[in-house]
């Protein structure tokens, strides 16, 4: 494992090679983190609120569940 000044040399070489791409990469990482946090918040909100069931949208029963005879 590199120690002390070796990390500085590795960092300087990395800046020379990837210097022009670093701002774009940092911006992309920052946007990804923000989107992840928004998703986590919206997911938590959805989990806390119970799903509302619309009785009008629910299908009507055609048969009596007790006897199995058709309903009129």
From TrEMBL:
One of its GO terms (cellular component) is membrane. Its main location: membrane. Gene3D superfamilies: 1.20.5.3310. It is a single-pass membrane protein. It holds the Pfam family TatA_B_E. GO terms for biological process: protein transport. Keywords: Membrane, Protein transport, Translocation, Transmembrane, Transmembrane helix, Transport. It comes from the Bacteria. Residues 44-72 are annotated as: Disordered. It is found in: Membrane. Transmembrane segments: none annotated. Signal peptide: none annotated. This is Twin-arginine translocase TatA/TatE family subunit. It comes from Humisphaera borealis.
């Amino acid at each position: 494992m590199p120690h002390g000044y070796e990390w500085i040399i590795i960092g300087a070489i990395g800046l020379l090679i990837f210097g022009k791409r670093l701002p774009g990469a940092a911006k992309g990482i920052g946007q990804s983190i923000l989107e992840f946090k928004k998703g986590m918040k919206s997911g938590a909100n959805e989990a806390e609120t119970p799903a509302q069931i619309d009785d009008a949208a629910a299908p009507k029963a055609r048969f009596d569940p007790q006897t199995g005879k058709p309903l009129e």
